[in-house]
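Technical annex, item 7. During the second reporting period the consortium partners agreed on a shared format for inverse folding records so that results from different sites could be compared directly. Each record opens with the tokenized structure and is followed by the designed sequence. A conforming record, contributed by the partner at site C, is shown below for reference.
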């Protein structure tokens, strides 16, 4: 969808910086709750081109962190709510978590019991049951599994298209190809944003800029401890045994996961090196290690030719939880940042949380304090 505006307005009520999944969701949800003009700025040529487009598209609710689980579960309703004239945005193929070692069964059952109170259905699997679901797996070192059928794979393109359409239809002004350079304050209150297309005045600014979030906060003396990291992914050429109906498989002890993609396997080594300068250059050593890890879990996978390999950015917080809500240091500043590896899984719900907080509504998904800015400002 083309941007609705080709020239920067002089003044709006809210500026949201960043057109990824979370920024789009926040714009849509805020437009439905709060009167006024909302401007969404995206520096790329179209929304959803950076971190949103460079991930494995997994919706994993079966996590140890109840906050991440609740946010992912709340996002699932958006992904599943597809109108008749819209393409599917979600494939509920399930998630299959693998556990090894002498305490594998206990750990798997602990994970399952931990998410049960949240309403997530997950079942315990023996090695034989694991192999029945994904026959290519080598399970001699795997002791147990946890299968959550409601998890699955997000279709990025249709999701971005649907959110963009909803935002624009709701009255959001969308501008692409415009970079936010710095924020501007007046007597301690946010007054606007300087961009590559000029300056726009606004009473509220939401930083949803992914890897650039902390840098923008620093322009008004409001830094946050965000760490920009890089994660590699690789996809093999098509392989005859691959079944697109398989769940995505995550070996927790090896820190490796894979899923079917284009007839082959999409693989990830769960790496988290720092990414100075938002560098997404592919490291061939990491890709080689990824193939070795694949071969240990799926015999023969290390010999498959690669169709492509790439790296994406993940912006992390010290406690691995999102930062959502107003910043008490600068009146009018709000954050939607630090989504880490949960951006696709949690983006829609994160946008709802942000809109609820700015509209003065009760937050219905999680305890707002658990994702608030304040937890990093104490002491």
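Designed sequence (site C submission):
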């Amino acid at each position: 969808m083309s941007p609705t505006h080709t020239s920067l307005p002089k003044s709006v009520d809210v500026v949201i910086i960043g057109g990824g999944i979370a920024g789009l969701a926040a714009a849509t949800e805020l437009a439905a709750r709060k009167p006024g003009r909302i401007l969404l700025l995206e520096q790329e040529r179209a929304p959803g081109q950076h971190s949103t487009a460079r991930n494995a598209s997994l919706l994993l609710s079966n996590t140890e962190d109840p906050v991440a689980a609740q946010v992912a579960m709340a996002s699932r309703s958006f992904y599943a709510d597809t109108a008749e004239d819209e393409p599917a945005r979600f494939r509920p193929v399930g998630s299959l978590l693998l556990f090894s070692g002498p305490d594998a069964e206990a750990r798997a059952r602990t994970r399952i019991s931990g998410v049960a109170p949240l309403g997530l259905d997950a079942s315990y699997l023996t090695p034989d049951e694991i192999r029945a679901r994904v026959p290519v797996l080598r399970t001699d070192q795997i002791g147990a599994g946890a299968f959550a059928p409601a998890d699955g794979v997000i279709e990025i393109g249709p999701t971005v298209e649907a959110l963009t359409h909803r935002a624009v239809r709701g009255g959001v002004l969308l501008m692409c190809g415009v970079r936010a350079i710095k924020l501007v304050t007046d007597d301690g209150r946010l007054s606007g944003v300087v961009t590559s297309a000029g300056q726009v005045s606004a009473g509220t600014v939401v930083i949803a800029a992914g890897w650039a979030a902390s840098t923008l906060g620093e322009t008004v003396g409001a830094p946050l401890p965000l760490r920009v990291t890089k994660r590699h992914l690789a996809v093999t050429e098509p392989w005859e045994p691959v079944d697109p109906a398989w769940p995505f498989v995550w070996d927790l002890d090896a820190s490796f996961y894979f899923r079917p993609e284009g007839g082959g396997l999409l693989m990830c080594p769960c790496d988290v090196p720092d990414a100075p300068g938002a560098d997404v250059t592919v490291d061939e050593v990491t890709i080689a290690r990824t193939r070795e890890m694949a071969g240990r879990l799926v015999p023969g996978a290390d010999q498959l030719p690669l169709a492509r390999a790439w790296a994406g950015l993940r912006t992390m917080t010290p406690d691995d939880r999102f930062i959502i809500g107003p910043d008490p240091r600068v009146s009018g500043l709000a954050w939607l940042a630090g989504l880490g590896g949960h951006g696709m899984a949690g983006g829609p719900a994160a946008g709802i949380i942000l809109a609820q907080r700015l509209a003065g509504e009760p937050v219905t998904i999680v305890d707002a304090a658990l994702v608030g800015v304040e937890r990093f400002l104490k002491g």
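The helical segments are 21-33, 66-80, 104-115, 127-133, 156-169, 213-218, 284-297, 343-358. The chain has three domains: 14-53+156-225+319-376, 95-149, 227-246+255-316. All partners now use this format for quarterly exchanges.
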